[in-house]
What does this fold into?
Amino acid sequence: MNKRDFVRTLGGASLAMVFGDDLWASYAGRPAATLAQDEAFWAGIRRHYRLTTDYINLENGYFLMQSEPVLEAFIGHVREINLSASYYMRTRQYDDKLAARKQLAAMAGCSHEELIITRNTTESLDTVIAGFDWKPGDEAVMAAQDYGAMLDQFKLQARRHGMVNRVVSLPVDPRSDDEIVQLYSSAITPKTRLLMVCHMVNITGQILPVRKICDMAHARGVPVMVDGAHAFAQLDFRIPDLDCDYYGASLHKWLGVPLGAGILYVRKDRIPGLWPIYGDASVPDDDIRKLNHTGTHPVHTDLTIQDAIAFHQNIGIERKEARLRHLQHYWTSRVRGEANVILNTPADPARSCAIANVGIAGMKPGDLSKTLLEKYRIWTVAIDGAGVHGARITPHLFTSTTELDALVAALKELARA
Ligand SMILES: Cc1ncc(COP(=O)(O)O)c(C=O)c1O
It folds into this structure.
C-alpha cells in the first residue's frame, strides 16, 4: 500500500483521515486476510453508514444502502441537476456519462468502447438475450438457479422465435470445478448459440468457475454471457480475466451506487451481432452505444458513480472481498453441522463470499424469515425454489460480528425447537 492509495478522496475524506495517519499507517501495511478479522478497523468503516436500529439488516443482496459520503454526494448531484435542468442535459450530460463510463471500464479492466452504463443487470442481460437473431431450433444453455428475469426473457424468446432453452441444475457442493464445467458441457449441442452463467448464484451465494466454463464453451464454438449482478465490486477480478463475451452487473448492489445503475460489457467483436432494443439508427453497427439509447433517465444516479467508486477504492477490493468472506464464514462455521441446520452454500471457502443461505429442517423458508424478523429483529429474505429452501443471509461491510452472533444464537434456538 503506497501513500497515493490512501490519500485518494473518500467523499472528501481518505481512510487516513478516517483513522488518523498513524493508525491507518499500521492498518495499511496489514494483509487483507488479517485486516478482515480486525473489528476495530471495520467499526471505523461502519461509522460511514447510517443504520436503522429497528432491525439487523442481513438482506443487503437486493441493493446496498449508500455510505453517508456517497449519499451526500448524490443529494448534491440531485440539487445540481434540478438547478441546471435541461441546460445540464443539453451541455454536460454526455461528457459526464463518458467520464463515468471510462472509470467503470478501468475498474472492469476493459476498453470503454466495450462497456455501457445501463439501469441494472436486467436491462444489460435482457439487451443481449433479446438482441440475438434467434432462429427456430436454436438453443441456449442456462441453470435453474439463474435469476428469474433472465430465465423469463429466454422463455419469451422461445415463445417468439421457437428457440429452445436447455436448463441444468447446479449442485451446491461440487466435487470439483470440472463437475460444473461438465454439467454445462453436457447441455451443449451443435445448435447451441448462447450459454448463460452466473458469476455468483444469488440464492445460494455459490461462485461458479466462469473462466473454465468460457474456455469449454469457446472450444465448442459457443459464446458465454455472464450474470455478474453479485460479483462486480464484491469479488476481485477483471472482466477480461474471464474471457466471456458478455457481462452484466448492477452498480446499486455491491458498488453502492444509488438505485438504477448497471453495466453491460460486450466484447468488441460481438457488438455487431447484437440487435438494439432501443431505437437509434444513427450509431454504427459496431459501436456499443447503439445498445444504450434508453431515453431520459436519472442522470444524478450516473453522476454518483464516481463517488461510489472513490469510496469503494479507498477500502480496496482485496480488503472488501476478504472481509465479506470472513463475515460469511464467521456465522456459517458456527452453525454448520448443527442438527436441523441446512446450509445451502458451498462449504469450500473459495466457492462463496458474502452471501449464504440457511434452512431449518421442518420450517418453511417464509416462516424462517418471518420468525427471524419478528422474534429476533433480523431482516433476511426467504428463498423457496430451484431446489433451494432457506433464508438468504447477506451481511455487508458495516455488519459487525456481534450482529452475526445474534443470528447464530437465533438459528441455534430455532434448530433446537
Ligand atoms: C443473479 C442476479 N441477476 C440479476 C439480478 C437483477 O438485478 P437488477 O434487479 O438490479 O436488474 C439480480 C437481482 O438480485 C440477481 O441476483
About this structure: Confidence is low (pLDDT under 50) at residues 1-8. The radius of gyration is 22 Å. The CA atoms of residues 79 and 231 lie 32 Å apart.
